[in-house]
Amino acid sequence: MLQAQGPTFLPLTADAAARIGASTVLSRAAEADETANACWTSLLAGCSSAARWGLDTRLRRLSEATSVYVGTRWWFSEGSAHRRRVANAQTCIEEAVTEGDGQEFAKAFMGYDHAMACAVVAAGQGHDRHRRS
Length: 133
Prior knowledge:
mainly alpha
């Protein structure tokens, strides 16, 4: 669950999901954020702790939840540019974790959060259009 002060690594994504009522996306974002915090701590401490591993799974679960929320058709058609940005940013995060590079990890997470939030917002707008139709 998100800590009282809010998400550290996915504030844009969490805000976007909360605003459009995407509860599963919000839940997965909270899980990914919690794992990212543990990974960040491990990176800063220079540990190769198990806390660093598993973040990729949490990020994939967040992407999957987003895909389900927006609909696979949108995710692989109109949303494909968003999907690619999210995937590329996730790859950067995974590389930073593998290399133990905290600075790159932080930079990559900023890109991932922005890409995911943009996808959630774009999808939310699509859901609104479908509801009005």
